[in-house]
Design goal:
This protein is of the alpha/beta class. It has one domain (26-293): Rossmann fold. Helix content is 40%, strand content 17%. The strands form 3 sheets. A 5-stranded mixed β-sheet has the order 2-1-11-10-12. Strand 1 and strand 2 form a beta hairpin. Helix 3 crosses helix 4 (86-98).
Length: 294
């Protein structure tokens, strides 16, 4: 399904005149950063995984080639239900490299939310962990196959436990596929991500964000907080939320900074990770701040 986005012509022209919107995509920003700082650590998580910008680019490029073999085209939706792991960033970047639309999902979503969201956005590929918080998210997703007519492929993120032999495993895909040499270019006005609301007043609603929407907001956000390439940004909030997805994963690579991810929040682990990685910035809602200060 092709998604067309209607723009207010006058507002679009004004934003471009003001330099807020441009032709460049998030992928263009990523490629510029990884060329400028290949040996710098780009992302690290509390499970001990880390990638330099160069290594992260190569890993995402391998996954991008897999997505192409799945028939993913620019504008197609790819969903991933992951906690704060480096693999989240890998999948996100792979989507950017092929022009796919990222659909990050909260780990807490169960059967009802998954079926609704995956069908609403017509996701063609889903990534989910083999194990997280004593549950098997990929097995739960596989049990829903009969209710997901648009889904072509499911991939098990085998970070904490091996995948079932009958299921595609992310670690194996990264070994089997060579890096995509030429990323697919998309325009800054193309759809980049769909973030679903909490659904507190009904079913979750998909918020469509273009590359320009995200770039303009995150550049302004970083400028307001004076965040630069010297910063190390800790994100304890779920990456399926706008806070985590935009400020914890996207903003760091836009400004050449380092991203530190925490999969399950508790104040002790958060403070230990903050000290260990010498983080200069931590972002989160009021309950996170309250727990850290108390």
């Amino acid at each position: 399904m092709t998604v067309s986005i209607a723009f207010n012509a006058e507002r679009r022209a004004l934003y471009r005149q003001q330099g807020l919107w441009e032709d460049a995509s998030l992928a263009d920003y990523w490629h510029q950063t990884q060329r400028a700082m290949p040996d710098k650590v780009a992302v690290i998580d509390n499970q001990g995984t880390s990638y330099t910008y160069a290594a992260l680019d190569r890993t995402a490029s391998c996954l991008a080639r897999f997505l192409l073999t799945c028939g993913i085209e620019p504008g197609d939706r790819v969903a991933f239900q992951l906690p704060g792991w480096c693999e989240f960033t890998v999948i996100y970047l792979a989507c950017l490299k092929v022009g796919a639309v990222s659909v990050p999902l909260l780990p807490a979503y169960c059967e009802t939310e998954l079926v609704w969201i995956l069908n609403k956005c017509q996701a063609k590929v889903l990534f989910a962990p083999t194990l997280f918080k004593n549950t098997q998210p990929i097995d739960r997703a596989i049990s829903l196959c009969g209710q997901l007519p648009h889904l072509r492929q499911m991939v098990a993120v085998d970070k904490l436990a091996p995948a079932n032999p009958t299921t595609l495993a992310l670690s194996q895909l990264l070994q089997d596929f060579a890096p995509l040499e030429t990323p697919i270019r998309v325009h800054g006005d193309a759809l980049a991500a769909v973030l679903f609301t909490s659904g507190t007043e009904g079913v979750p609603k998909g918020v469509m964000l273009t590359h320009n929407n995200i770039l303009a907001s995150e550049r302004a956000y970083c400028a307001r907080l004076n965040l630069t390439w010297l910063d190390t940004i800790l994100m304890p909030a779920p990456l399926g939320h706008a806070t985590g997805f935009l400020h914890g994963v996207t903003a760091p690579f836009i400004i050449d900074a380092r991203s530190v991810l925490l999969d399950i929040f508790n104040p002790t682990d958060c403070l230990e990770l903050l000290q260990q990685e010498r983080c200069t910035c931590v972002l989160g809602a009021t309950p996170f701040v309250y727990d850290l200060l108390c």
